[in-house]
User: Fold this.
Amino acid sequence: MELSNSTFDDFEVFKSNIKHEIKELGDYQFIIKVYLEERVENYWKSFKRAEALYLVATVDYLSRINDLPLANRYDEYRSFKLEDFLLPKDVAIDSIIHPNSNTKEAAIENAIPEFLKYNIVEVNLRDACWFQIK
Assistant:
């Protein structure tokens, strides 16, 4: 899956909104809201796979750190992953400017497992920028 510049910008806004929601609602209420509004399903049906998988990863991560069980409702999505990595913007830029740098590998190594499962390199859910690179 390749993100165009406009799609990339939309995804940046999406992520920012998610982070603001988590901060505003708190982890538990955010998980409940995503579940009740069927947001993962709606993004998936709209062919917004990155958004859907980002939400599944977010809910799974928040569930883990809060000792909550995983929602079975998302089991069907857990077998998918993005074709290309979604990297933090600074890592992606560094990888382009310094192709021999190990920044990308270090970010992947330190990524949150729930996100990495979908080829999303997230090191800090509450403060991250994204950029896709092949």
